[in-house]
C-alpha cells in the first residue's frame, strides 16, 4: 500500500544537467520519510517530480493508484490540488490573507467545500491566531499555518521541502513534532527533503541521494547515524 511510488525517474533540464539519473522508490502509506543528500544531488527535483509540480524526462510517478505521469497538465494540476499538500521552507503564505484564509485557500483552489478550520488550527496551537495576518506571526507559527494548509484538503501525501530550513531549533522541533503527528495521528504520508540530520531523525526512515541516484537508506534514523 504505497502512497507514492516513483519508477526509474530521470530528469534532464534544458541546460543539459541531469538531476535524476534513474531513481526508484516507494513511500508506504502512513510513513514519514526524509530525503537527504548533498546540495545538487537531486532532492528538490525528486520532490517536484513526485509531487507533479514538474515532469520527469522519463519514468513513472504514482500517487495512490493514479499514475501522475500519464495525466495531462490540467488534470495533473487538479489532482495535485485535491490530493497533495505542500510545505515549503519559506512558508509560501499569502501576506494579505489571514491565517484562516490561508488555511482554507487550497479548498477553494480544489473546488472543495469550505469547512471550519477551528479544530485543525486549535490542534496546531493557532486557535487564537485565526484572524491575524502572517506578518504578525513568528516563523514557527507561520510554518504551523503552512502545515494546517497542507492538511486541509485531507491529502494522501504531504511533500515538505526543507520545512525547518528557516527556523530556529525550538521552532524546528515543534514543526517536526507536528509532521510526525500528521503521520501518526492524521494517518497521512509525509515526504520531507532536508539537509539537517536532526530533522531527518524525526522521520521513520531516510533515503540518501547522490548525483541523482539513490545512494542508500536508513530505517529508524538517529541524528548521529544520519550525520555519518
Ligand atoms: P538538491 O535539492 O539536492 O540541492 P536539485 O534537485 O535542486 O538538488 O538540483 C539537482 C541538479 O539540477 C543541480 O545540478 C541543479 O543545479 C540542477 N537544477 C535544478 N533545477 C534546475 C533548473 N530549473 N534548471 C536547470 N538545472 C537545474
Ligand atoms: P501551477 O501554477 O504550477 O499550476 P498552482 O497554481 O497549483 O501551481 O500552485 C501555485 C503554488 O502553490 C505552487 O508553488 C504550488 O507548489 C503551491 N501549491 C499548490 N497546491 C498547494 C496546496 N494544496 N497547498 C499549498 N500549496 C500549494
TrEMBL record:
This protein's record includes keyword Iron-sulfur: no
Single GO term (MF): ATP hydrolysis activity
Keyword Transport: yes
Ranges of residues in domain ABC transporter: 4-228
Gene Ontology CC annotations of this record: membrane protein complex; plasma membrane
CDD domains according to UniProt: ABC_MJ0796_LolCDE_FtsE
Keywords: ATP-binding, Nucleotide-binding, Transport
PROSITE patterns xref list: ABC_TRANSPORTER_1 (PS00211), ABC_TRANSPORTER_2 (PS50893)
Protein name per UniProt: Putative ABC transport system ATP-binding protein
Organism: Paractinoplanes atraurantiacus
Upper lineage: Bacteria, Bacillati, Actinomycetota, Actinomycetes, Micromonosporales
